[in-house]
Design brief:
Helices cover 15% and strands 36% of the residues. Strands 2, 4, 5, 6, 8 and 9 form a 6-stranded mixed beta sheet that branches. Strand 14 and strand 15 (223-239) form a beta hairpin. Helix 3 crosses helix 4 (424-441) and helix 4 (424-441) runs antiparallel to helix 5. The chain is elongated and about 90 Å long. The longest helix is centred in the C-terminal third of the chain and has 21 residues, at 323-343. With 472 residues, it is α+β, with helices and mostly antiparallel strands. The protein has 3 domains: 10-140, Immunoglobulin-like; 149-320, Immunoglobulin-like (Sandwich), CATH 2.60.40; 339-466, no CATH class. This is Arrestin C-terminal-like domain-containing protein.
């Protein structure tokens, strides 16, 4: 057993400075080896490696290797005693003259740029694959100085909208601007939007200002692997001044600290670029649906650099939840709800709970609550495989379960999910009334006798089931 009390041999890498490194920096630390018993050793090999992976392809940027704990007196092997060993090391990251190194990018979903240290304890008469190993990631940044003069210039983009609904030749003039074209992570980029209208207009959340990240694959940037919104600000349009009908809005876009910096051609397989996107909805709020021709899109490229650090650093680690990730979680939740809805099965009405009572008592159900009790029912046309008991897959005004396989019984049960369980007779009455009402209204596609008889039989079964609530 080693001095630390471990029953097995243990190896680790401890860095003196767990921070960002730049090309040419020296990485200092120790390889920690805790031996449970005396071990015949050749050496410890420490390798610093950088590689790029994207679209099932990979490119190795570099590999630098040093040897630690070598045998004394030029021997091939020696015995390391059973104790805790610390072997200090220094290894230099390649300089810009030696190799163009892109910034680390391990948070991308379709490509990665990784740098890591790999320590291998090479024992005597053991193959490398069987040797004890440990890996430690390094964050290496390309030196991109955002304080250079050509970055500290205002950039702007303009747009003119001529609404087709106006009688006169009126136009809406818009301009978006940023005070500089480069910024570091953890800083805030102000975006100014100016609107010159020809009349009064008011609309909430009409202006959307986004920080967009785009990941390209290949040297020509022809293949876009991902394009996501990192941050979004919403602004209101409130133009009421009859003197000039104008408005100036300001959106402060925070640059997340975990998003990779801009990566150009030095990324080999991948490149990362950013831009500010402004979307202005000039539709009148009283007119629905929105006319897509009255949306204005403007974009401003922006470079995310690595030096110097912001004057007022804002720790955005806890605030960094990329909008794409949030959207995906919402979509996943919706898929889970849809799957759960489809699997629900009650007797002949397709609800998986043993009884309707248990379903109504389940307060943790994630199934969306419908907005009305009247549901659209389509009866399959005549022909083979017609199921007279299963209505269609369309439920009126229930978007989260649209096109699911939930029949009327479940729909009405859901509409009364907040009702007391004792009032189950009302549910059955509503179920019967709803089916009859729809059968009457849709006489052109009438319910045949098989459907009516089967449904009434199912209602009787259901009612009997409800009258005998299960015990928890």
């Amino acid at each position: 057993m080693g001095i630390s009390g471990r029953s097995q041999t243990y190896i680790d890498i401890d860095l003196h400075n767990n921070r960002f490194y730049f090309p040419g920096d020296i990485v200092r630390g120790e390889v920690i080896l805790d031996l449970a018993k005396p071990t015949k050793t050749q050496h410890i090999k420490l390798a610093l490696t950088g590689d790029v992976q994207a679209d099932s392809n990979s490119v190795k940027l570099f590999t630098k290797t040093i040897l630690l704990a070598e045998a004394p007196d030029n021997k091939k092997t020696y015995i390391l005693p059973a104790k805790l060993h610390k072997f200090p090391f220094e290894i230099q990251i390649p300089t810009k003259q030696e190799c163009d190194l892109p910034s680390s990018a391990e948070t991308l979903k379709h490509g990665t740029i990784r740098y890591y240290l790999l320590a291998t304890h090479n024992k005597a008469a053991l193959f490398g694959a069987l040797s004890l190993q440990t890996k430690r990631s390094l964050a290496i940044l390309e030196h991109i100085d955002v304080s250079l003069p050509h970055y500290n210039k205002t950039a702007e983009v303009t747009a003119i909208l001529s609404p087709a609904t106006t009688i006169h030749d009126h136009k809406v003039h818009m301009k978006a601007s940023i005070p500089k074209t480069a910024i570091v992570r953890g800083d805030i980029l102000p975006v100014t939007i100016e609107i010159k209208h020809f009349c009064v207009m008011s609309r909430k959340s009409a202006i959307k200002v986004q920080l967009i990240r785009r990941l390209h694959y290949g040297k020509t940037k022809g293949n876009i692997l991902e394009q996501i919104s990192i941050k979004t600000n919403l602004l209101n349009i409130n133009i009421k001044n009859p003197a000039n009908f104008s408005q100036v809005c300001l959106a402060n876009i925070f640059i997340p600290t975990k998003t990779p910096p801009t990566i150009d051609r030095c990324g080999r397989l991948i490149s990362v670029e950013y831009f500010i996107r402004i979307i202005v909805n000039m539709n009148e709020r009283t007119i629905q649906p929105d006319n897509p021709k009255l949306f204005v899109f403007m974009e401003l490229p922006v470079l995310i650099g690595t030096f110097p650090r912001p004057e007022l650093f804002i720790d955005g680690e806890d605030d960094y939840d990329e909008e794409q990730e949030a959207l995906e979680q919402a979509e996943e939740k919706k898929r889970c709800q849809s799957k759960e809805s489809s699997n629900l099965n009650l007797s002949q009405f397709g609800i998986s709970s043993p009884t309707l009572t248990e379903f109504l008592k389940d307060e943790k159900s994630n199934i969306p609550h419908p907005h009305e009790e009247t549901f659209c029912v389509d009866i399959p046309s005549e022909g083979a495989n017609r199921n007279p008991i299963s209505p269609t897959r369309t439920l009126t005004r229930c978007p989260d379960i649209h096109r699911s396989s939930i029949p009327i019984a479940l729909s009405i049960a859901m509409s009364h999910r907040n009702s007391s369980v004792s009032d189950t007779s009302t549910i059955v009455d509503n179920l019967t009334t709803s089916i009859i009402r729809h059968g009457t209204q849709r006489s052109s596609r009438s319910f045949d006798s098989r459907f009516s008889e089967s449904t009434q039989g199912s209602i009787s079964t259901l009612q009997g089931d409800i009258k005998q609530p299960t015990k928890d």
